[in-house]
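Slack export, channel: ligand-projects

TW: morning all. Re-posting the request from yesterday since it got buried. We need the structure predicted with the small molecule present, not the apo form. The ligand is zinc ion; the SMILES is in the block with the sequence. No rush, but it would help planning for next week.
GE: picking it up
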Amino acid sequence: MALIKAQGLVIKSTNFGEASKILTVLTREFGKIQVAANNVRRGKFMRGAQIFSYSNFALFKGQKSLYRMNDVDCVEFFDPLRGDLEKLSYANYFADIACNITGENNEDERLLSLLLNSLHLLCRDTVSAKKIKVVFELRSMTAAGFMPDFSGCCDCRTERNIASFDLVNGTVRCGNCIKVAPNIAEINDTLRAACLYITQADMNKIFSFDMPDELLDYLSGVTERYAAIHIDKRLQSLEYLKKILGGV
Ligand SMILES: [Zn+2]
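GE: finished. pasting the full token output, ligand included:
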């Protein structure tokens, strides 16, 4: 068996027996892979096998799709997430989305970059977690092939007086063309402009927009519904995040 090198972020870590784990790792080289990690009770192996550990892995590729961890060196551990329940809940939700929208052998690095950027920002407190959530939901769906079109009304192409966002088709309509349909969210020109920016800006600029808190709260509900419809699965991590934020 050949030894393979890969750099990736652990997005899921499940105990397997007394001292082993099955990891889901989002790698630069091979997309999402499953890794069996044995003897991870202590030292660098314990660290490297934890969720949100970003590491250089040395792996053996088995007969099936499962890889086996031979060595690991952690590059980034995202320490500030681990002692903060709210940040950890956001991070878990982002990782859960990533887990559900990408397949194996997907060489597209956009999702990994987005996730790493989002985790770095969650650690730093320079951008509100709610804003990171909005951006993550929209950009992860874009990376997954569900890029919404905020360029203008899908019927008459006007860029003004935008009134609705069709969450299923990812299109917007103006006040004149608006239709009654299920899964429609009300939006306005300000929200359309912000969403257009988020879906089209370069990765290093996607968080650089300003929006009043109230509007961001509303948009967070909209992007959450958009992501949920396209993931097509109820994510427990989202339920948990809501519970933490609601203080229930
Ligand atoms: Zn129109």
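GE: first-pass observations. The chain has a mean pLDDT of 94. The beta strands are 3-16, 20-27, 31-37, 54-61, 66-76, 149-153, 162-166, 171-174, 184-186.
TW: perfect, thank you
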